[in-house]
Design brief:
The structure holds 2 protein chains of 2 kinds. By secondary structure, chain A is mainly beta. In chain A, 12% of the residues lie in helices and 48% in strands. Chain A is built from 4 helices and 10 strands, in the order βββββαβββαββαα. In chain A, the strands form 2 sheets. Chain A has a 5-stranded mixed beta sheet. In chain A, strands 3-6-7-5-4 form a 5-stranded mixed beta sheet. The N and C termini of chain A lie far apart (37 Å). In chain B, 42% of the residues lie in helices and 22% in strands. Chain B is built from 19 helices and 23 strands. In chain B, the strands form 5 sheets. In chain B, strands 15-19-20-18-17-16 form a 6-stranded mixed beta sheet. A 5-stranded antiparallel beta sheet of chain B has the order 2-3-1-4-5. In chain B, strands 7-9-10-12-11 form a 5-stranded mixed beta sheet. The chains are: A mainly beta, B alpha+beta.
Chain lengths: 144, 650
């Protein structure tokens, strides 16, 4: 079984593996980083550490969320790195067998697909499981 | 969360940490001895005592853990200091050089013990070298009564038994040293009726062989020093040594303990949160408009002060002086100069400069390569130096200082300087530069960092140990540092490393640009002035110069340079901040307002998101807001916007 945290981005629904989620933070305005890519909303102060926050919608190639107090920041940690993800609202936790997860179709190109680890149908709705590691820029810088 | 600890491994780790400290003390003492020796002054006895105690505690600890090699060697070294302490051997510079070598070997032994590795072999040779001056110094052992056996008197106090010790342990140990004529004085024992069984009333007298070392004997009583009367003296000689005159092992440096870095980080974060909560609290209370005379306000001010102090103390925990790192370099110089037959001395400056521990650790390897190269390639051979009318002994200077919110380490030698023609020729040969390319001195110097070139240039016939400067450069860059070279033919070469003080505390000026708070390192600031009053001149299409401190400097709008706002007119109340980068380059930064000047914690921008030109790190202000810390060097460098920078070589 795998536990998935489901959330909304506009009209789309996505999930992340609960195992990588460290906490949910209520909205605080990220401080924009100079010269940063568009999907990097900025950094926030997470109990004294500087946490980069991604505008997940932009990262996935959707229209940016109109971020305000209603939004939530999902703090995820993977391979020792933390990152905040701005989402519209957290909706649910699904506990599903791993077997119902399907690999995403192999299509090169759209930003979204490279960040999707699996697809599934839950209650008749398609959900996409986000590969948090793929969101991180370390893959690029680490190789350089 | 339950954390499992192996208590023994913790104690061992503590011992090794202590050893490192002690060896540092030893080298300090030796350096001080060397100095007084070369000035022809008599050595301060306290310095010799410090060295003796340092060795002694390494020996003691080593014995407790069963590191026999370490103990044996430390014992040999210790006895030399003991003789010195008694004035039987004068510290000559040859002896000090040997002792320094011994100190290095001792460090190796400690390392070997820690890693469970093979023990380096040349220990006995070093000890032999050490014992030679001893025999010269002490012309006739008889003269000093060294052939007289020791007489020892030992009277345990009641407290010795009360604290769980037993005189038997000492007696057994003494017997192992060859104690003879052991005699127990029972005259103080009262009648059975009056006997208090817990009261100590026995005194032992015994003799020990003359060739035993006094320190060796006294050591047996290390744990019961305060719990007994002890008298150790040579037979029929009046120079009695009362135990109490032997200085205790406790050092004058403050005691220290080992703490996981994780725990410190956690503490720092919590204190940061506390400070933020506190300032929010102050704000909330201010909104209720309390009576300014009330207790509430007074208490709140106390809390503010305490929080500030707490924050300051926590911030300093991670910082460490670079001294230990520099002392390792002193060793590298000694060894390299010995191996190459090039006499060299290392001058250290600013050893007390503090730097984050992790940076210190990661700096060790690159710096070691550089120091080795300085001796190997920087310095000429003694013969060559002679023809140049330079002193035969080369001087290498290693200095550290905080400058412009960064740590600057400079390594300079008084050697031959870089041979730019040769570098250029090699680079052309390897197709790194075209024959018609025009390179300034600085760019030519930088060629030695090129991977295709550095190894070739670095290889020497003598040592064969040439280390690629590209490796050094990569390591420094990974630390977020920069490296630059200044070299003058025949006069020497100077490498300048500029490193960020990750997590260190920094004095910063908090300024505002557009809506963004920025911190400019105070160390980089020369002057601030209202922009309107300054003499500004156009230079080219976009560039602008401003006259400050009798010189024209480029004017940079920080908001534009950092991409926070579009080029245009800064507000009329804007301030110009004149900064100087660590390489001396100046520029004037336009900011909207100066808010405050204060100490800030430097927080690294982690992850791959963080390559932001002009910004070195971030900090969290009292209200929880994030402010970016400017890198004056990069901001000043970014000045000629129209022209591509010639950094391609690196």
């Amino acid at each position: 079984m795998i536990e998935l945290l489901a959330f909304r981005l506009g009209e789309d629904r996505f999930c992340v593996d609960v195992a990588v989620v460290r906490e949910l933070r209520s909205w605080s305005r990220p401080t924009p980083l100079p010269h940063a890519p568009a999907f990097l909303a900025g950094v926030i102060n997470l109990r004294g550490t500087i946490l980069p926050v991604l505008d997940l919608a932009v990262r996935l190639g959707l229209s940016p969320v109109a971020a305000d107090n209603r939004n939530v920041i999902v703090v995820a940690e993977i391979t020792g790195q933390s990152v905040g993800l701005i989402v519209d609202a957290v909706s649910d936790i699904h506990c599903v067998p791993r077997s119902i997860l399907e690999p995403p179709p192999r299509v090169q190109g759209p930003a979204q697909l490279t960040c999707i680890a699996a697809l599934s149908l839950i209650d008749g709705q398609m959900i996409r499981v986000i590969d948090v590691a793929a969101l991180m820029p370390t893959g690029v810088t680490g190789a350089a | 969360m339950v954390e499992l600890h192996d208590p023994m491994s913790e104690i061992r780790a503590g011992f090794f940490a202590e050893c490192a400290e002690r060896i540092e003390q030893l080298h300090d003492a030796l350096a001080a001895l060397e100095e007084s020796c070369s000035n022809g002054r008599t050595a301060d006895p306290e310095i010799i005592n410090t060295a003796f105690r340092a060795i002694h505690s390494i020996k003691g600890g080593g014995g407790a853990f069963g590191f026999d090699n370490l103990v044996r060697f430390a014992h040999g070294v210790e006895s030399v200091f003991d003789l010195m302490r008694c004035g039987q051997v004068a510290p000559s510079s040859a002896l000090i050089a040997n002792l320094t070598r011994a100190g290095d070997h001792l460090a190796d032994l400690v390392d070997a013990a820690q890693a469970g590795k093979e023990v380096p072999a040349n220990g006995s040779e070093i000890l032999e070298a050490l014992s030679t001056p001893t025999s010269i110094g002490v012309s006739d052992p008889m003269e000093f009564g060294l052939t007289q056996p020791w007489i020892l008197q030992f009277r345990p106090h009641t407290s010795l038994y009360a604290s769980g010790n037993d005189a038997l342990f000492q007696l057994v140990a003494l017997r192992e040293l060859g104690a003879a004529d052991i005699c127990c004085d029972t005259s103080m024992v009262p009648d059975l009726a009056a006997l208090d069984p817990e009261k100590a009333c026995l005194t032992w007298t015994l003799s020990l062989p003359a060739d035993r070392d006094e320190a060796e004997i006294v050591e047996i009583f290390d744990f019961v020093v305060d719990l007994c009367d002890l008298l150790v003296q040579r037979k029929e000689l009046s120079s009695a040594t009362v135990q109490n005159t032997v200085p205790s092992v406790s050092a004058e440096t403050a005691p220290s303990m080992r703490v996981d870095l994780d725990r410190i980080d956690r503490l720092m974060n919590l204190v940061g949160e506390l400070a933020i909560s506190q300032s929010i609290l102050v704000q909330c209370i201010a909104e209720t408009r309390p009576d300014p005379q009330s207790h509430l306000i007074e208490r709140l001010e106390t809390l503010t002060g305490l929080t500030r102090n707490l924050q300051d103390s926590v911030m300093t925990i991670r910082a460490q002086p670079v001294k230990s790192l520099f002392q390792r370099m002193a060793r590298v110089v000694r060894e390299t100069s010995a191996a190459l037959g090039k006499p060299a001395r290392l001058r250290l400056e600013g050893e007390e400069t503090e730097l984050d521990r992790t940076v210190i650790e990661r700096l060790a390897d690159p710096l070691m390569h550089m120091v080795r190269n300085a001796v190997d390639h920087g310095l000429e051979s003694p013969a060559e130096r002679k023809t140049q009318q330079k002193p035969a002994e080369g001087t290498i200077t290693l200095s550290a200082a905080h400058r412009a919110g960064r740590l600057v380490i400079e390594l300079s030698d008084d050697g031959r300087g870089l041979d730019r023609n040769r570098i250029r020729a090699k680079a052309e040969e390897r197709g790194l530069v075209t024959a018609d390319a025009v390179l300034g001195d600085a760019l030519t110097n930088d060629l030695i960092f090129h991977p295709g070139l550095s190894t070739a240039m670095g290889l020497s016939d003598i040592s064969g140990r040439g280390v690629g400067m590209d490796v050094v450069k990569t390591a420094i860059t990974r630390l977020g540092g920069r490296i630059s070279i200044v070299s003058e033919p025949g006069r020497g070469t100077r490498f300048t490393l500029s490193l960020p003080l990750t997590l260190a505390v920094m004095d910063g000026m908090v300024v505002r640009t557009a809506r963004q708070m920025l911190v400019i390192p105070v160390a980089a600031i020369l002057e601030t002035a209202a922009l309107q009053r300054l003499d500004r001149r156009k230079a080219g299409d976009e560039g602008e110069l401003v006259r400050m401190r009798d010189a024209f400097v480029s004017l940079i709008d920080t908001g534009v340079a950092l991409g926070i706002r579009n080029p245009g007119c800064p507000p009329g109340s804007a301030i110009a901040v004149l900064i100087a980068a660590e390489d001396g380059r100046r520029a004037a930064l336009i900011v909207d307002a100066v808010i405050d000047q204060r100490q800030v914690v430097v927080k690294p921008l982690r992850g791959g998101f963080a390559r932001n030109p002009g910004i070195s790190a971030a900090t969290i202000l009292g209200d929880g807001q994030i402010a970016f810390i400017c890198d004056p060097g990069e901001l000043a460098r970014s000045v000629p916007t129209g022209r591509a920078d010639l950094t391609a070589v690196a």
